[in-house]
Amino acid sequence: MQTAPPLPSHSDPRPTEDRRDALKRIIGEGRIGRQSELVRLLKSAGHEVTQSSVSRDLRDLGVAKIGDRYVLETSGNSPAAGLSAVAAFVQSIVAAGPHLIVIRTTTGSASSVAAAIDQRQWSEIVGTISGDDTIFVATTDLHAQRALLARLKSFQPR
User: CA 139, CA 157: separation in Å to the nearest integer?
Assistant: First the structure.
């Protein structure tokens, strides 16, 4: 009687780690703007991937889409590094009333900048809403708004 080979174990993290390492390398080496390109390049490198697995990997790795390309954060999971990495896309930061800050970004960058702000988990922030080039940041009160304005402007390029 012949026995079938064992099924691959889904608890082995190596294939996922290898795929994510390849994904980071691909993003770091070129201007990739579509997930379908990432899927094609990963498959050609011998990885079994789907659009869903690539999407999950991008989210888990903290990859941002800035304009027309994917970019990696510069130093791991550091929230400060994430905010510094996207600060160049901020065009203006202004107060609007006593509880709101409006941040204007380059086209297509607002969601990445908002995600970097959300990662900070600052107590002054009640919530953020982002569009294509604008972010609304709600604060708890006027004092919190002023403190947050100072924090955000410290990341803005001079």
Answer: 23
